[in-house]
């Protein structure tokens, strides 16, 4: 079974959309897909065969105050309006509808990583948790703590999947993958620092102590999971596709020119996938 992981990274993950568009252009198919945060949204468009659909989300829609803004945060406590992004825009009557039926027809295994806000543990949603015009798991997976309140779905609250399983390599191989393509949105050899995460965790710990603990430890888990990826890479079972630098892109930074450069990087770097899977 051939798998692909997209770890997300907010606006940086236009890189991943470039990778998937290359795959659509060249008929590269994966049996198993697992996405974190924006990575899960990229995978949705890939599974549906919707070439370049995600580009507008990173370069056009993101500039709208309805998408993300301080005014959103002041009114609702959510900087990102997940219902606007993965509802108003993405539903069947939206500006850029996700072809849910095509996703289902693809027959691919799809896991979406979120973090249970109460426990700080990963929750792996599947296609069974999604339905026509109801993309709740993607909203849960993309709910960035501090700038957003947890997203409530199926009776529980969730934060971004990056808190609890930022690079789900172990999950992919435990689920039976023989080979995996791992899409990162930071340089391959970059070691994550935990200072920012620890500061943010202080703001979260009163209401959500377990999620705060997960956030404080995220960088350590990220680096540990990447070390595991390196081991699989040396064994010839995993390919890391990652940008050499992120330029002027950032988690919530809007810069159309910088974003398109990242998209082009992803599209170019994806060439390595053909050889890896041959």
Structure description:
With 278 residues, this protein is α/β, with parallel strands linked by helices. The protein contains 13 helices and eight strands. It has helices spanning 14-25, 38-48, 53-59, 70-76, 82-88, 100-106, 136-141, 169-174, 195-204, 209-216, 218-234, 256-269, 271-277; strands at 2-6, 32-36, 109-116, 122-126, 151-153, 156-160, 179-183, 238-241. The longest helix is centred in the last third of the chain and has 17 residues, at 218-234. The mean pLDDT is 96.
Order of helices and strands: EHEHHHHHEEHEEHEHHHEHH
| End-to-end C-alpha gap | 14 Å
User: What fraction of residues sit in β-strands?
Assistant: 5-15%
Structural class: alpha/beta
Largest sheet: 8 strands, mixed
Helicity, as a percent range: 40-55%
Poorly predicted ranges (pLDDT <50, ≥5 residues)? none
**Global Rg:** 17 Å
Taking all residues together, what is the mean pLDDT?
Answer: 96
Number of helices: 13
Q: How would the global form be characterised? A: globular
Could you give the count of β-strands? Answer: 8
